[in-house]
Amino acid sequence: MPLHFTPQYADSLHSYTMSVAVRHDNEYPFANVGLTVDFFGTDTLIERKHIDLPLADAAGNWLGGGFGALYQASTPLCTGLAAGKVTKVVVWQGLNTDTLPHITEVGIIIH
After folding, report:
1. I want to staple 102 with a disulfide (CB 3.0 to 4.6 A). Which of 27, 68, 70, 83 is the partner?
2. From residue 30, how far is each of 8, 16, 24, 89, 102 by CA, in Å?
3. How big is the CA angle at 27 (ends 25 and 32), to the nearest 5 degrees?
């Protein structure tokens, strides 16, 4: 099931970086997560990106920061984004499984 986000821009005169963040717990069974991200502007698909976000290194150590048993990893999706160009973001998981167990949150960060 896809996740839908509506980006909020603080100032229409600035350009932004948009990132995707994934939070997971210690029991996540994979070393990465594959995501497909669709960017829409006024209900028209602008771009589709396929992201392979590593969550663990080759030794199985979790990457990213976190507290206790939760870890968060993120990656930039686009830079120099004009405010309002992207009005909707849809994120799909891309692994060969119906669900992603132990993923606790997925979000879009505008900075």
Report:
1. 27
2. 31, 31, 11, 25, 10
3. 80
Q: How much is the pLDDT for 97? A: 78
Find out whether 34 and 52 touch, Cβ atoms under 8 Å: yes
Angle 37-35-39 from CA coordinates, rounded to 5°? 0
Task: Name which of 24, 7, 35 is nearest 92 in CA terms.
Answer: 35
Give, in degrees to the nearest 5, the angle at Cα 44 between 12 and 98. Answer: 105
Phi, psi of 8 (to 5 degrees): -115, 125
Task: Give the Cα separation of 12 and 106 in Å (integer).
Answer: 25
Mean pLDDT, contiguous 10-residue spans, the chain (111 residues): 94 94 95 96 94 95 87 96 95 85 96 95
The pTM assigned to this predicted structure is 0.90
Starting at the earlier edge strand, list the strands of the sheet with 32-41.
3-5, 88-93, 32-41, 44-54
